Amino acid sequence: MNADYLELSDVRVTFDGFVAVDGVTMTVPRGDLRFLIGPNGAGKTTLVDAITGLAPATGSALFGRTELLGRKVHRIVRLGIGRTFQTATVFENLTVLQNLDIAAGAGRGPLTLLRRRSSVPAEVEEALETVGLVDVRDKPAGVLPHGQKQWLEIGMLIVQNARVLLLDEPVAGMSAQERADTGELLRRIGAERTVVVVEHDMDFMRCFADSVTVLHAGKVLSEGTVAQVQADPRVQEVYLGTAAEVGA
Ligand SMILES: Nc1ncnc2c1ncn2[C@@H]1O[C@H](COP(=O)(O)OP(=O)(O)OP(=O)(O)O)[C@@H](O)[C@H]1O
Fold this sequence. Notes:
Blueprint: E1 6-15, E2 18-28, E3 33-37, H1 44-51, E4 58-63, E5 66-67, H2 73-78, E6 81-84, H3 96-104, H4 110-114, H5 122-130, H6 146-159, E7 164-168, H7 176-190, E8 194-198, H8 202-208, E9 211-216, E10 219-224, H9 226-231, H10 233-238, H11 243-247
Helix pairs in contact: 3-5, 3-6, 5-6, 6-7
The structure holds adenosine-5'-triphosphate (ATP).
Organism: Actinokineospora xionganensis
Pfam family, one: ABC_tran
GO molecular function: ATP binding
């Protein structure tokens, strides 16, 4: 039985009396590439913060049978929940390979980490291939184009054995080709993992989402396939200014 799913029930986050996430209930099974969309301020990033331990929340966020809410950030990471931020957080002066190696060694002690490795660990090789960075493995991460930095960050989550990936606007600022490549990458990694993509790019969502959850004012407004969500009059209303874009 597949226990790699994310099940949120009545998740709530309040900042000084302001309710940013207002009772969100949603389930994301493994292999379902879920897009989380909604207008600015809808609570998307705060919901991801709640799942990853960065925002105090009530309710329940289960990964399989394990409750995530109330745990410390590093424990949640160790349970296999990984996230990216809008700005890639890679070590710019280290090579692609070194970045992946460090991520893979997150469970190793500092002395072992300092010791030079005689060969590239299998999981690092595999991640390099998965994210398509084999050819640039010896380049410093700082010189990579924006798209490749995002892929490196995803690779770092993969070598940490992340089973759930929460990606915050992964294609923002990318070229059309980088977007298409990223979509294919998400499909590859999403087949075996639980992936939630926070996104504003509607074209990208239409091309790659298996399912969509629309947040509005901290609540789930609509959920379903791309076609179902686009046809939902409540979604069209919320996106009125950009309705043509959503409904196109
Ligand atoms: N630390 C905080 N303290 C107070 N209010 C916050 C905090 N973090 C977020 N908020 C508020 O919570 C609401 C939801 O913000 P959030 O960033 O989650 O929205 P979002 O859907 O991710 O928006 P965007 O698409 O613009 O990134 C906003 O009104 C925001 O101002």
